[in-house]
Amino acid sequence: MKGNTAALEALDTLTLATRLGEACRARGASVTAAESCTGGGVAHAITEISGSSGYFETGYVTYSNAAKTRQLGVPEATLASHGAVSREVVNAMVAGACRDSGASLAVAISGVAGPGGGSEAKPVGTVWLAWGDSMAQEAVCRHFDGDRHAVREQALRAALVGLIERLESEPAIQEKLPER
């Protein structure tokens, strides 16, 4: 899966969204996005593709901590102890988005897009992403360069790449062996 990351990251957003749709249809998967610093960019990219209503459930733009708690069930204590830009929060965002939407796979993004808001521990460009479902999540911290637009664009592309990688690591429906 990871060997394909560089090739995927070289693709434009529209191509990534198209490939995500193909992977969802081939596997009977549905996806949702729980976004903070990307402000709905992932949902927008996915829904640029005709027919995306067949696999895209919903999108959550939970910019404030209160919205993360209210819409996705992120515990206030988790936000207080780890901050919104953390592994624990994006994992909880994924779990909550899958529980609420019924999607089989979610991505969550929370970061510091800038130009303000950074700290020594979490400088501008720090973005946590997670993928998974209501039971299991995998999170990574990325550090993106550039201005606010560049950080948000890189986070959006990383989110799509991660969804594609996870889906393409599973066999397509027609490739699955029949149960005995």
From TrEMBL:
<protein>
    <submittedName>
        <fullName>Nicotinamide-nucleotide amidase</fullName>
    </submittedName>
</protein>
<dbReference type="InterPro" id="IPR036653">
    <property type="entry name" value="CinA-like_C"/>
</dbReference>
<feature type="domain" description="CinA C-terminal">
    <location>
        <begin position="15"/>
        <end position="166"/>
    </location>
</feature>
<dbReference type="Pfam" id="PF02464">
    <property type="entry name" value="CinA"/>
</dbReference>
<dbReference type="InterPro" id="IPR008136">
    <property type="entry name" value="CinA_C"/>
</dbReference>
